[in-house]
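Request: Give me one sample?
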Amino acid sequence: MKARVTWIENSTFLGESNSGHAVVMAASTTPGGATTAPSPMEYLLLGTGGCTSVDVVMILQKGRNDVRGCECRLEADRATTEPKVFTKINMHFVVTGKNLKPDTVQRAIDLSAEKYCSASIMLGKTAEITHSFEIVEAA
């Protein structure tokens, strides 16, 4: 895997993936200050949510479950001193489908967390990661 990050101006950068996609990212120059784009750490959290969500949906689909939606709501705490790594992350899944069983959804989340999601397994080296979920019955 290859990528490139190029400085645009001030604290704004362009990240380009080897697959030809690009994202703008920016860092605040003051703690909690405004930015023009998500920060690199926000992208790291978003990427982790995306990685695990892909797993959960694919596992449910492979099990022939009628999954119609999946939202992963993430909340994270970071260390107060440098390096400000993630120390706690909660991933709350809202899974929509027809006749989804709680144990099946839990199993998909567990498989992602323990076996498939490289991003969350990597972040689990510094952060306590917890998971919760709710099921919404599709109309």
